[in-house]
Fold this protein.
Amino acid sequence: MANDSKTWRCGKYELSFDRPRIMGVLNVTPDSISDGGEHFDPDAAIEYGLAMLDAGADIIDVGGESTRPGFTPVNPDEEARRVLPVVRALAKEGAIVSIDTRHVAVAKAAVRCGASIVNDVTGFTDPKMVEFVATSTCGVIVMHAGEVAVPTRTHATVQLDTSAAAFVAEKAREAAAEAAREAEKPARRRRGKLLGEPKPEAKLPGGVVQPSLPFGDPEPAPEPTDEQKQEAPAAEQAARAAEAGATPEPAPEPNDHLAAMMRRSARREEAYVPTSQLRRFTLPDSAPIMRRVMGFLSDQARTLIHAGVSRDRICIDPGPGFGKTANEDIVIQRETAKMASLGYPLMCAVSRKRFVGAVSGVTEAAERDVATFGVCLGAIQAGANIVRVHDVAGFAQFLNGYWAVAKPQPRRAFVAVGSNLGHRCDNIRAARDMIAEIPLTCVSNCSRIYESEPAYETRQDAFANAVIEIKTELAPLVLLDELMKIEAELGRDRSKKAKVNGPRTIDLDLLWMDGEIHGGKKLRLPHPLIGERDFVLVPLEDLMHDPARFFRYNGVEVKEPEDRVGHIVGELGRM
């Protein structure tokens, strides 16, 4: 996993998986099972999405229709009204946004608003959805939603007795039947009745009754009328609800197979298993389950590829909780390595699911985060690339701790350093020395120190600028926090009264990190203004060949020298 070569192209973004990626769940719904209603207001949803980015999320998955067991379907117009303002605002802040929808119209509108990923819970079984994503450049998530147990016919249990007593009883029954027929002949002539009387039951020695075995065909029931056929399902549902003492749920929309499947799933999960169905093993056989799940995911991925979707745009998700029991979900999670071997980026979307509660003994969905982290860790170790979680801050902290110890992974990064107050060059050298003391980080190279014109806020003294190349094993947001500590220690004023681009003792900007893309208010990677800053691009020429070309390749717009800000006017010496 530490050197996973898979990449995932999602519109203008390309995600690498040398480190697991975190997808934050943002439900803009009133009825989600764990956070329903908390982010139903668009402004609250946007604020929460930005907070997840600042906490460590790489992707925000925005959904406007709850697909919990027993959910009520939402029409596309209402779903679009909920999600589009949120998608637009988060994409504007540089976030990689995924739209969680099964409706083509909603997917189209969300991609137009800036979404980079379409997460279809029905696995792109709608040809119109396939046609749409084939004409776009967005990433796609193929999810398996459906039962994995093969339906079986039930038969009445028949107990055969092959003992001598049974043979004697059978002979006695035949003799009694013959005598009865002889006795009935006059009765038939007299009344024409008695044909429907039951045969007398034979008695075994000791007075034990041997019942007649139900081998005969039952009399066919009368065919129900069309009106009865329509009323039967509703009546059954109402009867079940009445027995449970609950208000019956509204029936799903016509032909809404997902809603019907999730209701069946809930009933299967809650069903009592009688002792006659006790199993010999703790879990069902994995082979038939994985054939159905992996077969579906492979078939749908091939369908997308044949339609024109490139393979590196496809991610797969086994769909835990969708039509599956707790036992089946555990079987699927234990086979993560097999699913990863298909070669597509693999999603682990187990956050707060029922089976997580079953294995941890936690009833309330919102309290299952710690157990979720444990399941996700097992999936990551087996090859999962993306984890979809509700508690982003908690999981990012959990993952950073695990990754620092388990996966040595130094990565290259560039930090811009500037100062125009006090002894400018000494401030820059002090910052360099303090960066070298950051845990799991070393300074590998430094540019020369240059003098530049002030940028943005021009009525101030000239700046001294440099770029430091480092290697670090810290996550980007953790590294940024360390840089902010150095700024504070060297006297940087970040209070509200200080001008954003005004005079400062020291200024540290994380410009770029190998394999990292990030959006949000706290950190943007690559730095969104790097392509217009002459006081950054010129020092970078000391550290790499043609930085303009390098950053253009990484999706950054780089301006020509005459169109940049903060032009270099001289050299102040070496670091």
